[in-house]
């Protein structure tokens, strides 16, 4: 099943392909924002937590 990622605001196609790409890779490819409307990209809830070291 191909993956398709579009901007949630303007619908600009950000990525389409058969390979699944991690969202952060797609976001970093566009420098964190949509090249068309400039919306900050937050495609998928980023599953990263920053925790203090113990
Ligand atoms: Zn956009």
List keywords for this structure.
alpha+beta, single chain, flat, 13% helix, binds zinc ion, 54 residues
Give a written overview of the molecule.
The protein has 54 residues and is of the alpha+beta class. The protein has one domain (1-42). Helices cover 13% and strands 17% of the residues. It is built from 1 helix and 2 strands; from the N terminus they run E-E-H. The chain has a two-stranded antiparallel ribbon with strand order 1-2. The radius of gyration is 13 Å and the shape is flat. It starts with a strand and ends in a 25-residue tail after the last helix. The relative contact order is 0.25. Residues 7, 9-10, 12, 34, 36-37, 39 line the site of zinc ion.
Annotate the secondary structure layout.
Blueprint: E1 3-6, E2 13-17, H1 23-29
The protein binds zinc ion.
Distance between the termini: 42 Å
Small ligands present: zinc ion
The residue ranges in which pLDDT falls below 50 over 5 or more consecutive positions are none
**Major β-sheet strand ordering:** 1-2
What sequence of helices (H) and strands (E) makes up the elements?
EEH
Q: Biggest sheet: strands, sense, closure?
A: 2 strands, antiparallel
Give the class from helix and strand content and strand pairing: alpha+beta
**Mean of residue pLDDT values:** 81
Cα radius of gyration in angstroms: 13 Å
- The number of domains is 1
Share of β-strand residues: 15-25%
Give the strand tally: 2
Task: Label the overall shape.
Answer: flat
Tally of individual helices: 1
């Amino acid at each position: 099943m191909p993956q398709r990622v579009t901007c949630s605001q303007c619908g600009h196609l950000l990525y389409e392909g058969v390979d699944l790409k991690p969202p952060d890779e797609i976001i970093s490819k566009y420098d964190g924002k949509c090249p068309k409307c400039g919306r900050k990209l937050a495609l998928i809830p980023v599953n990263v937590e920053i925790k203090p070291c113990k």
